[in-house]
Amino acid sequence: MPDPTLDRLAERIRQRVRDVPDFPQPGILFKDLTPVLSDSELFSAVVRQLADDFSSHDIDLVVGIEARGFIFAAPVALHLGTGFAPVRKPGKLPYRTRRIEYALEYGSDALEAHVDAVQPGQRILLIDDVLATGGTALAAAQLLEQLGGRVVAAAFVLELAFLGGRNRLSAFPVHSLVKYTAG
């Protein structure tokens, strides 16, 4: 059954998301969440909703994916009363790291986390701003599991459902506040 509160929030987010054509490369229509962040009431509602959606999941750690995932993951962690850990691009973390490389539709990339970012058996909520093809989120989940954690769910503010990223993340529940079904 549809949740009218969630539907209203999704509509408010849609109204504030800005489409930026040809960013970061030609042919890409970038969904810019900056206007959502600049609206303190809406930003707060997004964080509260993400936290509320996982308040009964016994989460030990919230992990944010660089860079916009940090913006949502850290306040969600505070709401849930958990710690926060970042997953970053290579060379950005000051301590010893574990690295994972993964394929993109236009090349390859890598992610890193501190070797002690996750304690064995910790139940992790993985957060990023947008779910597109799922490659980055899948790599982050694999990295966290290599470190001994257990990703129990992934959450996103926006999902570009037409790119099929949810299918790549079938090992755990995926939650998004707004789904775009067409490009």
What is the element layout, followed by pairings?
Blueprint: H1 4-16, E1 18-21, E2 29-32, H2 34-38, H3 40-53, E3 61-65, H4 68-80, E4 83-87, E5 97-104, E6 107-114, E7 123-131, H5 135-146, E8 150-160, H6 165-168, E9 174-180
Parallel strand pairs: 3-4, 3-7, 7-8, 8-9
Antiparallel strand pairs: 1-2, 5-6
3D structure, described in words:
With 183 residues, the chain is an alpha/beta fold. The chain has helices at 4-16, 34-38, 40-53, 68-80, 135-146, 165-168, and strands spanning 18-21, 29-32, 61-65, 83-87, 97-104, 107-114, 123-131, 150-160, 174-180. The strands form 3 sheets. Strands 4-3-7-8-9 form a 5-stranded parallel beta sheet, sandwiched between helices. A two-stranded antiparallel ribbon has the order 1-2. The mean pLDDT is 96.
Brief write-up:
This protein has 183 residues and is α/β, with parallel strands linked by helices. It is 33% helix and 33% strand. Strands 4-3-7-8-9 form a five-stranded parallel beta sheet, sandwiched between helices. A two-stranded antiparallel sheet has the order 1-2.
**What's the rounded overall pLDDT mean?**
96
Helix and strand string, N-terminal first? HEEHHEHEEEEHEHE
Strand order of the largest sheet: 4-3-7-8-9
Helical region count?
6
The unreliable regions are none
Tally of DSSP β-strands: 9
Overall SS class: alpha/beta
Q: Give the CA-based shape.
A: globular
Structural Rg: 16 Å
Main sheet: strands, sense, barrel: 5 strands, parallel
Distance between the termini: 26 Å
β-strand percent reads: 25-35%
